[in-house]
Design a protein that fits this description.
With 248 residues, this protein is an alpha+beta fold. It is built from 10 helices and 7 strands.
């Protein structure tokens, strides 16, 4: 059995316009979309460019737009697409470097603003910073984010506002804000609570539909909003900025 791969092609160094090229790919049992792309690269067209690394759905490198949906090529079984035609495009809303490879530099620059790392609080423990099962439950889902940028690509606010941090960055921020071991909650909330942060999210849920790890970014962002508001409220109370009104 063969399937037809229709692949987006564009090399900005020499092409004036993008195009699509069709390839015939022989299919075997258990073959993924990524396997098909590797077949094309090895046997048909060595100029085809795309990203991949772990091939196990962990690194997020092979996130693509496959048959009109955001998917990881390494986890998408050809037989599950139930079609003899597979259309593969790069992630929308990112500049194309070549073919299926997009420029994620701005995405990772935004990620740095969310301080995506644990900040130790207090004195060093004798062995480790303990965390209860209940505390871990608060971040069980969001900790699975692999930074594939699919949700970032799907977000309509990110399409129209280049400064919006985006759902992936905000979800990663919540992963640390919600971590009981972290000591930088105040600083991190301040970073994401601006006009281009959590308040720019309109809860469209495109990010949730796009996520290959089934993370609910909209819920995570809503929790960030709540925490940011509570922190601001405490600031007003402490600094007497309520102008005599009772708060709380």
């Amino acid at each position: 059995m063969n399937v037809t791969y229709t692949v987006f092609r564009f090399d900005p160094s020499k092409d004036k316009e993008s195009r699509y090229e069709a390839y015939q790919v022989p299919v075997r049992e258990g073959m993924t979309v990524l396997d098909g792309l590797l077949y094309i690269l090895d046997n048909v067209d060595p100029t085809l460019s795309f990203r991949f690394a772990c091939r196990e759905g962990v690194c997020g490198s092979c996130a693509m737009f496959i048959n009109g949906s955001y998917r990881l090529a390494c986890q998408t079984q050809i037989k599950d697409l139930k079609s003899d035609r597979i259309k593969i495009e790069p992630l929308p809303n990112f500049q194309v470097i070549k073919d299926l490879v997009v420029d994620l530099a701005v995405f990772f620059e935004k990620l740095e603003k969310a301080m995506p790392y644990l900040v130790a609080a207090g004195a060093l423990p004798e062995k480790e910073r303990l965390q209860s099962m209940e505390q871990r439950k608060q971040i069980n889902e969001v900790i699975d984010c692999i930074l594939c940028a699919a949700c970032q690509s799907a977000c309509p606010q990110a399409w129209t506002n280049k400064d919006f941090l985006g759902p992936a960055v905000l979800t990663k921020a919540y992963r640390f804000v919600g971590d009981s071991r972290d000591g930088a909650q105040r600083e991190r909330l301040k970073l994401v609570a601006g006009e281009d942060g959590v308040w720019r999210c309109h809860s469209v849920f495109n990010c949730v539909e796009a996520c290959p790890k089934k993370i609910n970014q909209t819920v995570a962002i809503s929790r960030l909003k709540r925490k940011a508001f509570v922190q601001k409220l405490k600031f007003w109370q402490r600094d007497g900025a309520t102008n005599g009104r009772k708060v709380g």
